[in-house]
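A quick aside before the break. I want you to see a complete sequence-to-structure record at least once, exactly as it would be stored in a machine-readable document. Don't worry about memorizing anything.
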Amino acid sequence: MKQHYTNQCIYIAIILILIFSSCEKEDLTTFEEPKIQEVLIPETVKDTTYTDKELLKVLNEELEFLKIEEKNGIVDISHMDIVKENPKKIYVHYLPWFQSKDYDGYWGQHWTMNNQDPNNSDSDGNAQIASYYHPTIGPYSSNDPDLHEYHFLTMKLSGVDGVIFDWYGSKDLHDYGLIKQSTETFITTLEDLGLKFSIMYEDRVAKQSSDAGLSPNIIEAAQEDFLYINDTYFSSPEYLEYNNKKMLFVFGPHYITTENEWNQVFDILPTQNYPNYLTLWAASDRVGANSSGEFLWVDKDHLLAHEYYYNTYASQDKIIVGSSYPGFNSFYTEGGWSNGVNDWVINTDNGNTFVETLNYTHHEQSDFIQIITWNDFGEGTMIEPTQEFGFMYLQILQEYTGVPFTPDDLQVAVDLYNIRKKFKNDNQVQRLLNRTYRYVKKLEVERADKVLKAITRFY
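That is the input. The structure line, written in tokens, reads:
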């Protein structure tokens, strides 16, 4: 047996020498030879999708492409164009409020709440976070460009058209300044991939800003926030529009509750930038004529809320926003953030809750669907890949949207993130991974998979 492996090792070494010696001789001062491990081929190889010969050929080609890029620059395409059989627009509600010790130097409160410590592990070996569920990639930072790449590639591969950011104003109050900052770190990747995005405003922050003395009063606080939205987000070519008007949401409103007050808030905006303003369901009367529609949200009444929403608003000349969610299981009480608030549960039912809310009959009347949510781990409404559910929710979404991708393609995005982290200090590997990102962007997912497997096997 030992002699057999020795012969294999010699054979592989000869292949490596022949392949790499066949490369055109030129100055490689900015490149390093791949750090191929000189070890015997293991008795059991987990990944047998491609042979060593195939992957070495791919790796050699990619190293040559890096030389060409060094000489001529990078030629890139704009956007990631996905063909969907289902024309219904899908937007995911997104929480940009996480910090991680690895990236930010500390664990943010949305991973810890009052009593959890991600430095410790639970009985299943997962980081102890403020959730009943755990991200496949572990707890992360919303500021991390590797995360942006991973989340948005998986969204595109699932047929998602855009993101609705939960946004807490322009002031540096509580962790709201961090949320604003994190939101803005996402925009470059959103624009690169061609994902739309919008803002969901929390009007309670205007009240808090006024109470803290950061603004003269609640109306001026909201005006300052709206001007910030106008100047910072509306200018993006990927900001979400409907009928040629920007889309702006408010979770409520709960504190600015009369049409006259909202008239004052909107008067601060240029007339051409008056948005379609959507309130939480049953709240449009608080903004009066400024309302363009209402959006449905997850509720303990579950499908009864859907029925009420469509029966009430479908006949009105307003924008209709359906909702879909995988379930609801809040960690707030256990995490020490509340005492009995939102302690109702909507069971995931092995994915059937997501299926029934996604396929709800009246959704055909909606202008688009908001998925609640991509990543609210605290309330247990996330559809991003998790240790508990894997790709189940995104596979359901792929089937609904009719995209030509599978969970195997989603795994490529996960592998890209994990390999970025493993080789975070290796410049050559990171440049190979940049090329891998562009392969996925061009829908050459199989090539991307080969590059990732070549890096994994030989570096």
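Two observations worth writing down. Residues 2-75+429-458 form one domain. The chain has 16 helices and eleven strands. We'll return to this after the break.
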